[in-house]
Specification:
The complex is a heterodimer of chains A (289) and B (354). Chain A has 289 residues and is of the alpha/beta class. Chain A is built from 10 helices and 12 strands. Chain A has helices at 46-53, 76-81, 99-103, 120-133, 150-164, 180-195, 207-213, 236-244, 256-265, 268-282, and strands at residues 8-17, 20-30, 35-39, 61-66, 69-71, 84-87, 110-112, 117-118, 168-172, 199-203, 216-221, 224-230. In chain A, the strands form 3 sheets. A 6-stranded mixed beta sheet of chain A has the order 6-9-10-3-11-12, sandwiched between helices. In chain A, strands 2-1-4-5 form a 4-stranded antiparallel beta sheet, with helices on both faces. In chain A, a hairpin with a 2-residue loop joins strand 11 (216-221) and strand 12 (224-230). Chain B contains 16 helices and 2 strands. Chain B is globular, with a radius of gyration of 22 Å. In chain B, a hairpin with a 2-residue loop joins strand 1 (195-196) and strand 2 (199-200). With 354 residues, chain B is mostly helical. Chain B has one domain (40-345): ABC transporter involved in vitamin B12 uptake, BtuC. The longest helix of chain B has 27 residues, at 124-150. Classes of the chains: A alpha/beta (289), B mainly alpha (354). The interface between A and B is large, with 43 and 34 residues. Bound molecules: adenosine-5'-triphosphate and magnesium ion. Residues 17, 20, 22, 40, 42-48 of chain A line the site of adenosine-5'-triphosphate.
């Protein structure tokens, strides 16, 4: 599936926080209908990349392509319009609102639109359906999110993303706080979402989990993509090697990125396959398996 | 703590086994009852009842005659109106210290308009224009404070403290320190002292405002976003809510309510009472907090505020009737405010540990 046109592509993203270069010309590619794991050490820039690609922050420079077309994601609403949803590392839920309200936050359903009167029954009904869909059994969708367990909160954030995503879901460490059972449940949901044809970008520090659920892996180190793997052809040692810098396969010498990024990018159609080809090439960059 | 987690996990772990419907229904009723009796509103109501019982016991037959009740409601009316605006502000985890001073400023601006346009004999048209001017003054002043909070990122406490000073200064500058006591007779006799079907206009207005904004808070998008912003502003931003705009709107609403209270005050006393409102903010904030609103934002209701606002007033009326110096009201109100916030913090810690 990796030979297809990329669904989402980021080229040369730069984001600076004062002295810290959180993204230093980062590239990222996601193909339709795959689970791609985005891994890297603490502070590698994973969350920053995700926030950039979901419109929560604006990069200092760089381009983003959706379906081969250059887009500007200047707010979360822009990203939503492109079918991109995000489960943030901090979940981004309003703890005093109930699960149904959180699920529809920013996308309320109205009883009387002109007066902006909410249709709480309908929102609740859809929330119950959405949770059922995910196999999450919330005892009470009317209880404030603050009163839910960590896993249940996570489920609410995941359900919200799943309910609206039409193309891509970013999940920033969705299993970090979970027990074994809950973790399995989230991984099941990731597969389920992928089976609906939605691309899932999973950020995780848990290598067995990454190997279990992903189709591909992209590795970020110090704000740059340093390696890409097909999950079937890799193992924990390689992934760890790439994260720690012991193993580097691409982007590091700064080959295509600054040069090919800008000229090729303005023509939307042909621009993207041009940079997609190194994607397939990168996987066989090492035979040390 | 442990058993809530246990049930919760059991709930999520067994998706394949829907609960029998009957059991589910009775469960919901229990849950509903439990929720009703643990809501902050019911506690506020109990406090109010206890207070009334104590004063009735201390002064049997004297406290809470019908005329007391209507007097209390009448003097409470402007506080109630301001407390409605303050509720929205506190729900966003903000605070508005300026309310009593914006009340005065709005009254002064409207009063000056009346002085130069017909004075005591001003007609209905002029009266309406003056009312509108007062309301706009309050709303604009509130919006300015909202701008300081939302755009300039000045903490609400400081933004509205600065606003308080500005409103006070402006009121004195405009009037030269002398109350404007020329108020249209028709305003004083209608809104000020008149009644509609036996109920004073002040009470009618304040109750209507309460009802309207109670509905807005509970059932509209504006209400829901107010809760969301107070609960987690970053989350609100990430789902695309224009947080800054809503914040400015909420402070403008508080200013508008203070402006309305200013008009009511002007009509009731037939003068601007420039120096008469230094502690309105204490009373109003206490009312909102007693009504169950959390200073951390995200929690509270108009019903709670409605009940809460009668507590300081009931204290004042009760103290007078049992012959205690009424200035004890402010001391007791301060104590009650501190206690209520302490309890809120205590509850919050418990919740976070859970
Ligand atoms: N808002 C911010 N202000 C200042 N620096 C920031 C900010 N956000 C991120 N950074 C810095 O950018 C770098 C990348 O952070 P980021 O959160 O993207 O890392 P991460 O890969 O998600 O790490 P983790 O695995 O710990 O979640 C870090 O050095 C971090 O300190
Ligand atoms: Mg992170």
């Amino acid at each position: 599936m990796a030979e297809a046109e990329p669904l989402l592509e980021a080229r040369n993203l730069v984001k600076r926080y004062g002295q810290v270069l959180a993204l230093d010309g980062a590239n990222f590619t996601a193909y339709p209908g795959e689970v791609v794991a985005l891994i890297g050490d603490n502070g590698a820039g994973k969350s920053t990349l995700v926030k950039t690609l979901s419109g929560a922050i604006r990069p200092d420079s760089g381009q983003i392509f959706v379906d081969g077309k250059a887009v500007s994601l200047s707010s979360p609403l822009d990203a939503r319009r492109h079918g991109i949803e995000t489960v943030y590392q901090d979940l981004a839920l309003a703890p005093d609102l109930d699960a149904a309200a959180n699920l529809h936050l920013g996308r309320e359903i109205y009883r009387v639109r002109a007066l902006q009167i909410l249709n709480k029954t309908e929102m609740r009904r859809r929330a119950v359906a959405a949770f059922k869909d995910l196999g999450v059994n919330l005892p009470d969708v009317g209880a404030p999110v603050a009163s839910l367990s960590g896993g249940q909160r996570q489920s609410v954030a995941v359900a919200r993303a799943v309910a609206y995503a039409s193309k891509i879901i970013f999940m920033d460490e969705p299993t970090a706080a979970l027990g074994v059972v809950q973790r399995e449940r989230v991984l099941d949901n990731i597969r389920r979402v992928r089976d609906r044809g939605i691309t899932v970008v999973l950020i995780s520090h848990n290598m067995p989990e990454v190997l279990a659920v992903s189709d591909r892996v992209e590795v970020l180190r110090m704000g740059r993509r340093v390696a890409r793997f097909r999950t079937a052809d890799t193992n924990v040692e390689q992934l760890v090697g790439a994260m720690t810098g012991a193993l580097t396969t691409e982007d590091e010498p700064g080959p295509g990125s600054p040069g090919s990024g800008s000229p090729g990018s303005d023509s939307p159609g042909p621009g993207s396959p041009g940079s997609a080809s190194p994607g397939s090439a990168s996987t066989d960059g090492r035979g040390a398996a | 703590m442990t058993d809530t987690n246990a049930t919760a996990d059991a709930g999520t772990a067994g998706p394949g086994h829907p609960e029998p419907p009957a059991e589910r229904a009775s469960f919901d009723v229990v849950r509903l009852l439990k929720r009703t009796f643990t809501t902050n509103e019911s506690w506020t109501f109990i406090v109010l009842i206890v207070l009334m019982a104590v004063f009735t016991g201390l002064a049997p037959g004297k406290f809470l005659t019908t005329s007391d009740l209507s007097l209390i409601s009448q003097t409470t009316a402007p506080f109630l109106v301001m407390a409605i605006g303050e509720t929205f502000v506190i729900l966003t985890a903000g605070i508005d210290l300026s309310v009593g001073f914006v009340l005065v400023l709005s009254g002064v601006v409207a009063g000056e308009y009346y002085v130069h346009n017909g004075g005591a004999n001003a007609g209905i048209g002029t009266i309406w224009v003056g009312v509108l001017i007062g309301l706009v003054t309050g709303a604009a002043y509130g919006a300015l404070q909202g701008f300081m909070v939302a755009k300039l990122k000045i903490p609400p406490l400081i933004a509205t403290l600065a606003g308080l000073g500005g409103a006070e200064g402006l009121s004195y500058l405009i009037t030269g320190g002398h109350d404007v006591a020329t108020v249209p007779n028709k305003l004083a006799s209608s809104i000020g002292q008149g009644s509609l079907g036996g109920v004073q206009w002040l009470i009618v207005i304040s109750f209507l405002v309460t009802l309207l904004f109670g509905l807005i808070l509970a059932f509209t998008r504006f209400g829901r976003y107010t809760y969301a912003i107070g609960s987690n502003p970053e989350a609100a931003r990430r789902v695309g809510i224009k947080v800054d705009r809503y914040l400015i709107g909420v402070y403008a609403l508080s200013g508008l309510m203070a402006g309305l209270a200013g008009i009511m005050n002007l009509a009731y006393y037939s003068t601007t009472t420039i120096s008469g409102h230094p502690l309105d903010n204490l009373v109003v904030i206490t009312a909102v907090v007693l009504g169950g609103a959390s200073l951390f934002g995200g929690r509270g209701s108009i019903l709670g505020t409605f009940i809460g606002v009668f507590i300081p007033e009931m204290l004042a009326a009760g103290l007078i009737i049992i012959g205690v110096n009424q200035y004890w009201q402010y001391i007791l109100t301060g104590v009650v405010l501190a206690a209520a916030v302490y309890l809120d913090q205590f509850r919050r810690r418990l919740r976070e540990r859970a």
